[in-house]
Design a protein that fits this description.
- With about 270 residues, the chain is an alpha/beta fold.
- The chain has one domain: P-loop containing nucleotide triphosphate hydrolases (Rossmann fold).
- The protein has seven helices and nine strands, in the order αβαβββαβαβαβαβαβ.
- Strands 1, 2, 3, 4, 5, 6, 7, 8 and 9 form a nine-stranded mixed beta sheet that branches.
- Helix 1 runs parallel beside helix 7 and helix 2 crosses helix 7.
Length: about 270
């Protein structure tokens, strides 16, 4: 996923002309957005791990859906893209990561970080220092979304009860890669994971494949899915999908590791 993947129309925008999404589980999307805001004390940054999947062509837009869902609740998200297709950072990042951060809007920043995680691995095989450094580089951010391969995320979140977000689509390669990542991470003994699937090419097949992935994880890996979201159009989620994205965001933030960072009152200016 390149930095350009995130450009263009805001994927989370409501193009239906409706002011409010339909209630899901007895709560409106606005109620859920308010609940997301209440999870924050204004002085900390939480980290969310999204497992990269090179087979998913629209992975950048799926992550942007999640980032804008958090932004709708007034939270600023820094996407730290350390996936296989992310841009490599310049040499200046050895001194200060913030020089490579692109602040896209008031709620969203992007950092291309391919290869950086492995440069922070310690003698115990952990990369906790990378998470701390990324958080310190964007003290205005409420949430870090770390998008990286399963092996790198296991180093970053080693020893923590984090909740992976697994990306998938309806292609055979996309489904198999998602399952391989789930199989690797399931060995960490984590309580659950969430699934975010894009099904533009096969909108009817998407929900069935998501159910099969969840069933396989439960039966063969003893690892239950928490929240499963299927987005039919990468260009924009419909009202019911937006509410499911908020369910996903709420579940993530309730379990996300916290990096204690004191943030200034405002985000740096963007262009």
């Amino acid at each position: 996923m390149s930095a350009q993947t995130y450009a263009g129309q805001r994927p989370g925008a409501d193009t239906t002309g409706q002011d409010h999404a339909e209630p899901v589980g007895g709560h409106s999307c606005l109620d859920q957005a308010s609940g997301l805001r209440r999870l924050f004390d204004g002085r900390s940054t939480r980290a969310v791990g999204v497992v990269s999947n090179p087979a998913v062509a629209w992975s950048g837009l799926l992550i942007e859906h999640l980032a804008h869902t958090l932004g709708a609740a007034g939270l600023h998200t820094l996407v730290v893209d350390a996936s296989e297709t992310a841009p490599e950072p310049g040499e200046w990042t050895a001194l200060d990561l913030r020089w490579a951060i692109d602040v896209r809007c008031d709620q969203f920043s992007y950092l291309g970080a391919r290869g950086l995680i492995r440069g922070h691995v310690d003698a115990n095989g952990r990369a906790h220092a990378f998470l701390r450094r990324a958080a310190d580089s964007a003290p205005w951010a409420d949430v870090l979304i770390v998008h990286a391969p399963a092996t790198d995320l296991m180093r970053v979140f080693s020893g923590q009860d984090w909740r992976p977000v697994v990306l998938a689509d309806t292609t055979p390669t996309g489904v198999m890669q998602a399952y391989r990542s789930m199989k690797s991470i399931s060995r960490c003994g984590l309580s659950t994971f969430d699934l975010l699937m894009e099904s533009a090419a096969h909108p009817v097949l998407g929900p069935r494949l998501a159910m099969r992935l969840a069933d396989s994880a439960s039966r063969f890996l003893s690892w239950p899915v928490g929240v499963s979201v299927v987005v039919q159009s990468p260009a924009g989620a419909d009202p019911s999908e937006l509410c499911r994205l908020q369910d996903l965001a709420r579940a993530q933030l309730a379990q996300a590791p916290v990096c204690a960072v004191h943030r200034p009152a405002s985000t740096p200016a963007f262009h």
